[in-house]
Design goal:
A hairpin with a 3-residue loop joins strand 1 and strand 2. The chain is an alpha+beta fold and 221 residues long. The termini are far apart. The chain has one domain. The strands form 3 sheets. It has a two-stranded antiparallel sheet. Helix content is 39%, strand content 11%. The N terminus is likely disordered. Helix 6 crosses helix 7.
Length: 221
């Protein structure tokens, strides 16, 4: 009897050739970039194998992906990741520009990075910058692409950031304004490009921040 003729008893009446039985169980890799990006524990080593170190909240691919995702739709996954209070890791998703400086070690968390990187991608124009794409998980051809933003050759990346419409109703801007001391680069960029914008109502939170900047810079003259 050949191995291919061996049969497997299924429900005591139907026989399936053993050579075909395994095809239905063949694993198919599917990357869930949100899940890969918001958690990092021992289970991920079993899910992702040797590539596990490439993912997780502290990785560049995950920080870039979640910043792009959350800039478009601040959902439950974004809210969960924004509460990650690990301050031991650098901001690898930061736009590579003289306008945005890396924070001092220990002063901002992975959750803070998500707010900053998402807000930058939401409120800023990158016409002077280079945007490159690469696959999130190179082991999975169906994996989404991530975007990296930086200098365009010898020309530095100089984003132009502006206040959105109805700023008091923008959840991402409000997260920035809840801790403005952590996001001064972004807010000052907005100030320089929107300080003469008469459509910004004076009683909005962002207008109050602009008044503080105006008073501060006036004393520096």
């Amino acid at each position: 009897m050949n191995r291919e003729d061996i049969c497997y008893l299924n429900d005591r009446s139907n026989y399936v050739p053993l050579k075909n039985f395994g095809t239905a169980l063949a694993p198919v890799l599917r990357t869930d970039p949100i899940a890969y990006s918001i958690y990092k524990d021992i289970d991920s080593l079993f899910d992702e194998g040797s590539m596990a170190r490439s993912f997780g909240p502290a990785s560049k691919s995950s920080q870039c992906y979640m910043a792009e995702h959350c800039s478009k739709n601040w959902d439950g996954a974004c809210e969960l990741l924004s509460r990650n209070n690990d301050t031991t890791k650098p901001n690898l998703g930061l736009v590579n520009s003289p306008s945005f400086q890396q924070n001092a070690p220990g002063t901002m968390s992975i959750g803070d990075y998500l707010v900053l990187n998402s807000a930058t991608r939401r409120f800023c124009n990158f016409d002077t910058c280079s945007i490159t794409e690469e696959i999130y998980n190179p082991n999975d051809p169906t994996s989404p692409m991530i975007k990296k933003i930086g200098a365009n050759g010898a020309r530095p990346c100089m984003p132009v950031c502006k206040v959105p419409e109805n700023p008091d109703n923008d959840i991402l801007l409000n997260k920035v304004l809840n801790q403005p001391q952590k996001y001064l680069d972004l807010l000052i960029n907005m100030y320089y490009h929107c300080r003469n914008d008469k459509t910004i109502q004076p009683d909005t939170r962002i207008a109050q921040i602009f008044k503080l900047f105006e008073a501060y810079f006036a004393r520096q003259k």
